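[audit] Reproducing an earlier prediction to check determinism. Same input, same settings, fresh worker. If the tokens differ from the archived copy the diff job will pick it up downstream; this log only records the rerun itself.
[audit] input (128 residues):
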Amino acid sequence: MCTELAQLYTELAQLYEKYKDQGFEILAFPCNQFGGQEPGTNEEIVQFACTRFKAEYPIFDKVDVNGDNVAPVYKFLKSRKGSLFGDNIKWNFSKFLVDKEGHVVDRYAPTTSPLSIEKDIKKLLASS
């Protein structure tokens, strides 16, 4: 596994641990539409993330984020926050920040470090 992927998992777990008691949630939706990065079963993916990276946040079943079978949650997220390059998700670990009322506040690229959006999370938690 590449170090960038390990860093993303690790930083997500750190953010969740730090802010979960303040109402912060991470909802993870694995997707195998990008280079076959999530080839395992739903159970294998959860086991991998929870064991190797101590992910305590919900990890849902695999979904499609683009195409004819796009999951409704991604249809909604993309309709509220398109990206500079169009609405399609470009790679795994695209991130959306959503407030408690369900408004999509921001969208972050797959390469954006989760810790780099901590200031946005803190601001959102302070305003709720």
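[audit] rerun output stored. Observation attached for the diff report: The mean pLDDT is 88.
[audit] end
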